Amino acid sequence: MTRKRKNVALEGLLEGGHTKAPKPMKTGTTIAGVVCKDGVVLGADTRATSGEVVADKMCAKIHYISPNMYCCGAGTAADTEKTTDLLSSNLTIFSMNSGRNPRVVMAVNILQDMLFRYRGQIGASLILGGVDCTGNHLYTVGPYGSIDKVPYLAMGSGDLAALGILEDRFKPNMELEEAKELVRDAIHSGIMSDLGSGNNIDICVITKQGVDYIRPYQESEYKDKRQRRYKYRPGTTSILTEKIVPLELEVVQETVQRMDTA
Amino acid sequence: AKMFTQVYGDNGKMKEYHYTGPVEHRFSPYSFNGGTVLAVAGEDFAIVASDTRLSEGYSIHSRDSPKCYKLTNTTVIGCSGFHGDCLTLTKIIDARLKMYKHSNNKSMTSGAIAAMLSTILYGRRFFPYYVYNIIGGLDEEGKGAVYSFDPVGSYQRDTYKAGGSASAMLQPLLDNQIGFKNMEGVQHLPLNQEKAVQLVKDVFISAAERDVYTGDALRICIVTKEGIKEETVPLRKD
């Protein structure tokens, strides 16, 4: 209880006072997921923004949870990284203890517990998809701890653009190739319409047979074709002073060790 | 997150659930529509370039909204910031140019337009036009001239200037490539028109990579004594 009071008081200190906390990097993302006949297809763009500047042009937003589960994350980049890492570690320990593969519903419950406990201070919106003995599942977990089990889904700043494509063309029990194309088109729509999403598209296909993590599934068609070369000649940066300190070393001891090359 | 810090009071206990009392909603007369503008002055030419993306928040209003406006045969102005104020300001400048032409029987020179714009902007010192202006053109001697402004009318003549959302990224690059700053032992070659246009295109490609508000297309206006030539180059659309 005292830890919570301390956190709340600290938050008040920063915002009420004149100190400005450093702005955390948000992913400003488009992520989407679709359940198809043979498994689950997850997709994400690869742009991470820090305000209006693109901080990372090739960041990985589809995180590994377990051999049969992957999670896409939108929101604060550090929060999605750490939350999914923690979930993955806990599930590995569980599967070693019990000798079983973790089920998707267990991962979702762990995520929900943790995010609700932190009252929304962890800004992670996650799409969790996986295949287990009970079937193919797709869940969304919000930053305040809400969950929803759905056949198709989009999250992030580009979610409305992606949802438009998904609402139009989703059908239950789609073929794998059709589902991959649908997710690719949904992410592409987010990339073109939303300023917070861009660059390449990553796709992750999870089936009973295994996982196909295609990164990138589609490279951005915008290759920078600059007309001039901007390489600097050696010596362009001026050397103002140079100080050379010779190290006077004397041989104290010499040992030879023969290498065993047999 | 803000919601929950108001739930706990200073003593650590939860506050009353219902908040009673008037809540003040603020209306902001301004909005930021993004966009980057750039101007370079050469020996006998001037280049004014801008991207054509009009955005608000994380959405795009238009992919084809250039920010360079032709004022006279020898002057182009680039305006970025709040689009509403950009449109009104250019209308006012056009009207003033016409009035000058009818009174004085000649077109305004670039220097005169710059001085006039400074007074127009300062006239709204206490409710400013949210516009970052850069004027590019030829002066009376036919040499290239660039005048850069702040929102309330402070201006100076430059050789090159970047303004708008990606200005902080472009200005250091121009300082290095055109002003030869921070480099030793490099020949200070004067900028010719072809090299300047290539540099402007490359510099905008870089800006579009890292600034979310810059992209879609690049409109370049090249001002020479023959007139004003326009060129459009595609940029990243994502």
From TrEMBL, chain A:
Molecular function terms, GO-annotated: threonine-type endopeptidase activity
Cellular component GO terms held in the UniProt record: cytoplasm; nucleus; proteasome core complex
Catalytic activity: Cleavage of peptide bonds with very broad specificity
Enzyme active site: 29 (nucleophile)
Keywords: Cytoplasm, Hydrolase, Nucleus, Protease, Proteasome, Threonine protease
PANTHER family: METALLOPROTEASE TLDD (PTHR32194), PROTEASOME SUBUNIT BETA (PTHR32194:SF9)
Similarity comment: family membership: Belongs to the peptidase T1B family.
Subunit structure: Component of the proteasome complex.
Purpose of the protein: Component of the proteasome, a multicatalytic proteinase complex which is characterized by its ability to cleave peptides with Arg, Phe, Tyr, Leu, and Glu adjacent to the leaving group at neutral or slightly basic pH. The proteasome has an ATP-dependent proteolytic activity.
Name recorded for this polypeptide: Proteasome subunit beta
The gene coding this protein: psmb13a
Automatic annotation (TrEMBL), chain B:
Localization terms from the record: Cytoplasm; Nucleus
Gene3D superfamilies: Glutamine Phosphoribosylpyrophosphate, subunit 1, domain 1 (3.60.20.10)
Keywords (A to Z) from UniProt: Cytoplasm, Nucleus, Proteasome
Chief location of this protein within or outside the cell: cytoplasm
UniProt-listed Pfam families: Proteasome
Membrane spanning stretches: none
InterPro entries in alphabetical order: Ntn_hydrolases_N (IPR029055), Proteasome_bsu_CS (IPR016050), Proteasome_sua/b (IPR001353), Proteasome_suB-type (IPR023333)
Record carries keyword Ribonucleoprotein: no
Superkingdom of this protein's organism: Eukaryota
GO cellular component terms given for this protein: cytoplasm; nucleus; proteasome core complex
GO BP annotations listed: proteolysis involved in protein catabolic process
Keyword field contains Acyltransferase: no
Family: Belongs to the peptidase T1B family.
SUBUNIT field: Component of the proteasome complex.
General function of this protein: Component of the proteasome, a multicatalytic proteinase complex which is characterized by its ability to cleave peptides with Arg, Phe, Tyr, Leu, and Glu adjacent to the leaving group at neutral or slightly basic pH. The proteasome has an ATP-dependent proteolytic activity.
Listed PANTHER family: METALLOPROTEASE TLDD, PROTEASOME SUBUNIT BETA TYPE-1
Name used for this protein in its record: Proteasome subunit beta
Lineage: Eukaryota, Metazoa, Chordata, Craniata, Vertebrata
